[in-house]
Amino acid sequence: MPHSVTRKIGTAEISIITDGATEFPTDLFPESDPSHIGDMLAQAGQDRIRTNFNAVLLREGNRTILLDAGPRDLFGPSCGNLPAALDELGVTPDQVDTLFATHLHPDHIAGMITAEGAAAFPNATLILPEAERSFWGQESNFTGALASAADWATLARAVMEAYADRLHPIAADAPIAPGLTALPLPGHTPGHSGWRLESGGEMLLHVGDIVHAPDIQFADPDIAIAFDIDMDTARKTRHALLDELATDGALVTGGHLLQPALARVERSTKGYRLTPP
């Protein structure tokens, strides 16, 4: 089974890479009644909460950009498919000139370094939102309520250290590359971001991690996951962006959309649903 789906957006070639997949237990959605989650799953024709871990490869002109890099081997044997996917696409790690991290959670950045902590992409500049760099770089932030994320912060700092001489923090809505712009989506983490690609009169919008469990969180955007540092802000961000996407009809992808992870957003009775592009 191929690990990627490729599509042209204007003159850009976009490959959505599925690094891996897993299932979430209901207790990762602590403010939602399990019976309500069960109802959402039943409406979707599912009996489990599915998610994917996605990265995106962008090739246009002489640029090769990798947006997020998956969890490597951190989340078990079903993950870590990024190297195989790049090989399928005919891309070697040294050809990647730019990395962008939507945020510094392990399932988005572990693939940027080896198990020994070396940069997996030796010629790439790592671009990330300044608010992410600042938050995860401060060890003192991970005490008290956030003590459970201390190991994640250690990994985030290891990634930043591996690219220290090629680390480029940017403002929340700054350009990443020509035609590619960061999109601030606060709540999940302080600097959590998506991105917008515009090329040849076409557009693709990456929604970051505003949705982790597509079968339930599109249907009910009030369902929040425990990984959201600020659940209330994450809910507001999710509602606002889904409303915008349903109005504009933009083509979307995201960090956890299920393969092929390219869709459009439509309004449904109480929430939203994804439809094929």
TrEMBL record:
Domain Metallo-beta-lactamase: 52-256
Protein's UniProt keywords contain Transit peptide: no
CDD domains, A to Z: OPHC2-like_MBL-fold
SMART domains linked to this entry: Lactamase_B
A matching Pfam family: Lactamase_B
Keywords per UniProt: Hydrolase, Metal-binding, Zinc
Molecular functions per Gene Ontology: hydrolase activity; metal ion binding
Domain of life: Bacteria
Family: Belongs to the metallo-beta-lactamase superfamily.
Protein's recorded name: MBL fold metallo-hydrolase
Organism: Rhabdonatronobacter sediminivivens
